[in-house]
# Entry
Amino acid sequence: MSAPRDDETDGEEPVRRYELLMKLATGGMATVYLGYQRGGMGFRQIVAIKRPHAHLVDDPAFRRAFLREANLASKIRHANVVDVRDVDASEESIDLVMEYVQGASLATLMEVCDRSQTRIAVDVALRIALDACAGLHAAHELMDDRGAPMGLVHRDVAPQNILIGEDGVARVTDFGIAKCVLTGDPSTWQGTLKGRLAYMAPEYVAGQPIDRRADVFALGVVLWEMLSGKRLFRGSTDGHTMANVLQAGVPGLDGMDEACGRALHAVLVRTLEKSPERRFRSMVELSDSLEALARDRQIMLSHARVSATLREHCGAELQARQAELRDRLDTRPSAAPDAAQRATVPQGHVRVMDGTPTAPASFRGDDLPPPSLTEPLVLVRRRRSAVLLWIVLGILAAVLSVAAALALRR
# Structure
C-alpha cells in the first residue's frame, strides 16, 4: 500500500468547505474561480478560489511553491493587498482561498480603454499607483515570526496582478513567485526568469541580485502605460522585449498638460532608471514624489473617481457577472455539511507538506464550534419564568396594600 499524500487526512478524503460557482480567469499555472464558503444556519460567503492546473498538483516542487505562496500572502495584512484566508487541500488539488474583490483587474480596464481609444485620467492613474505602492510597501516590510525582515519581493508586478474594486480601491494580488531575499527563501525552478518580461527590472533580466527596487521599476512601467495608453517595453519577441528593458529609454507623455507631463516624466525617469542605485529606493519614496506632484499640480486623488471610471468602462461586465452569480447561488444549497463531515476535518485547518496541521491564514473564527441553539432557549424560558414570578408578586403586594388601607379606615 502506498503512503498517503502529505495533504490527506488519515485515509479519509477531506470534506470541501468551499464550493465552486464559476470561472473568473485562467493563467499558465492556475485557474481562479468564484465560489462560496458554507457555514451554519445558511451562512454563505463569496470568495475567490485559486486552483492549480491538474497536471501541476502531483509535482512536489510545485506543491511546496504553492503552499509557500499561501503562507507568505497570509502574513500580509493591508487594505491594498488581497487577503488570503485559507488553504483547502484534497487528494486531487490544493485551493488557495482569497478575498473576493468585486471589480476588475487593471489589465482589463486598460484593455477596455484601449479598445475605446480613451485614456485613463491622470488623477485616476495616480490614485491606482499610490494604492499599489502602499500594498507593495506592506509586502516589502513583512517580518517573519521572530520579527526579522524577510526582504520580500513580489517579482510579478503587472496590470494583471492589480485588482480594482467597485469601491475604487486598488489591491495587489498573486504572490506566487515572490522571493524572500533576506531569509534565503528557496525558489522553485532556480535559474529561470519568473514574471512578465515587459515589467522586469534590468538587473533581474541580467541575472543580478534583486531587492524591492525591482518592484519599484515594475510599477513605474505600469504607471507609464496607464498614462500613455501604450506599451513601454513589450516587443515583437521575447528577445526584443528584453533588449528594450535593458537599453530603451523612457519616452515623454503626450496628450496631456505640458507642465504636468514634464513633472510626471521626471518622476518616471527616476523610477525607471536602469541602475537600481539611481532608482527610488522604496515604494515610500515613489509615493511621496507622486503625492507631492499631485499637490503642486492641484490634482485631487479620489477613490470615488476610480470607482466611477471602473463603472464607466467595465460596468456592464460587472453587472453580468453579478447576475450570473445570483443565478448560480439560487441553485446551490446553503446548508453546511453535517456534524459527521465537520468532524472529519477540523474547520479552518489543513495539512501542509510536513503533515502538520496549521491554523487558518486569516483568523476569522472559522475554527470555532457552531453556535448552540439549546442554551439560548433555556435562558429565554428562565427569563420568562422570572418575569411571571415578579408579576404575581407585584399583584399580591397591591392586593395586600388595598386590604390594609381598608382595614385602617374601618
Observations:
- Residues 372-410 form one domain.
- The radius of gyration is 28 Å.
- Confidence is low (pLDDT under 50) at residues 1-14, 339-380.
